[in-house]
Amino acid sequence: MNSVTPNPALVTQEAVQRLPRTLLLLFCAAYVLPGLFGRDPWRGADQTAFGYMLAIAEGRTPWTAPTIGGLPLDTALLPHWLGAASIALLSPWIDAPLAARVPFGILLALVLVLTWYAAFQLARTEAAQPLPFAFGGEADTVDYARAMADGALLALIATLGLLQLGHETTPELVQLFAAAMALWSLAAAPFRRYRARIVAFIALPLMAASGAPMIAVLFGIAGTVIAARSTYAQGRAYAPWIGVATLTAALLAWWLRTWAWRVGFEANSEQLFQLGRLLLWFLWPAWLLALWTVWRWRRHLTKRHITAPLALATVSLVACVAGGGFDRALMIGLPAFAVLAAFALPTLKRSTTSAIDWFSVFAFSIAALLVWVIYAAFVTGTPAKPAANIARLAPGFEGAFSALPFAVAVAASLAWIALVRWRTGRHRAALWKSLVLPAGGVALAWLLLMSLWLPLLDYARSNRPWVARIAPHVPAGACVDAPGYGRTAVASLEQYGRWRVEARADRAGACTVRLRQQRRGQRIEIPPGWDVAARVRRPTDRDEVTLVLRRSAP
Fold first, then answer.
1. Residue 271 and residue 263: Cα distance in Å, rounded?
2. Is the N or the C terminus of the chain less surrounded, counting Cβ atoms within 10 Å?
3. Residue 181: its pLDDT value, please?
């Protein structure tokens, strides 16, 4: 090696055995597919984005300036076009929510693929190679890179922050895909000359057009500096190309008017505590391994395999902090954090890997048991105390047994038992071994939630039950005033109620039905000429009442 300082990686050929492809594909399938099928859009950004997509696809609003309830879109337009086009093409055969999720599910799968290949290319660089042994037996270059890529993919799957956000139909998933493309482009520049340049020209403008122009520009600047200082001639030749891609992204953002700064950081103890808590759980366990990588490879921080993911992870971290703990900005850096975590694997001691294994076994086994107990409670009524808690927290929910989700959950639980048995056996040499149980545990928990608990979660997090309680008091096809309601509520009223909703305050009074929010302890004055037709509560919300007002008879 040409490195002045020996790197800390000591890896034998036995340690770089490849993760069985079937097992790796099952990990990815168990992670990507649950959450795509059989559920409504959930309150928040997921429901809002889908509301605009559905309105565009059904022709209720123009493609270039979409609105719902008269409220204009306040995020990037391109990701909404993606979902709307999918609904228009697929909705005759599948329902609209699933049709909107199909392209975003494909993007999530591509993020996993790009993360694997980015780690593979970085692990092939000369500075990343393990130290040669005096009498041979060190890991082969390609086998070592493949094992490191397997570890990066498992680290990404194990990261808790990607679970829900990665399965939503929001612009941030397109930004995440673009970030994974940018990371691969930077990693592959010395080895994939033309492909890397083409991907850079796609990734950075795509990120800017999807609502993250500042992160795209910072990514581009960092990539340009890294490429210019590369020890590879092709890497240095890549620098002007990514520089031009950065400029293109900035100009595209200016043309599309997507430039926006989300600044909400305040240096007070409460926000610092919330930010610290977010970083701890959102990046778990990648942040722990990434910090270990930075420490163990501290004499090699200028090397490409550390600098590239570290720079991109730092940009997303800074954006999250500047936004006052904006988790969706942090999500964009997850592929980079996963790659950093992978480079900790050759330096971990056996005691550390054992601690990770046993923590994963206990934590995820207890979580799976809890899911099964609560599932039994809301289906059979036993145990009685969890059943009473569910009845109190989700009044009106009635659980029912379904054979297919039950069979899927049983298969997932048996697979987890088999995985734990395999890992606690005589399988200690593989480089990626310490991330198998964390990734498998996250996939198990997500699959159980999206099979056994899906009806309960849909009841608690979807707005369908709320709209269903309003529907008996509002005529079909009516015009509904909803001043003061946010985009999520308006999207739900249009989707489930099929009413024409007017949410702008300056247009209030144009309809024969009006909805008003009333918080606990708040007094609402009924405008003259209106009568209260009903008071409706959201099933899982005790603090808010929806007043259904109708015009008084002459």
1. 13
2. C
3. 97
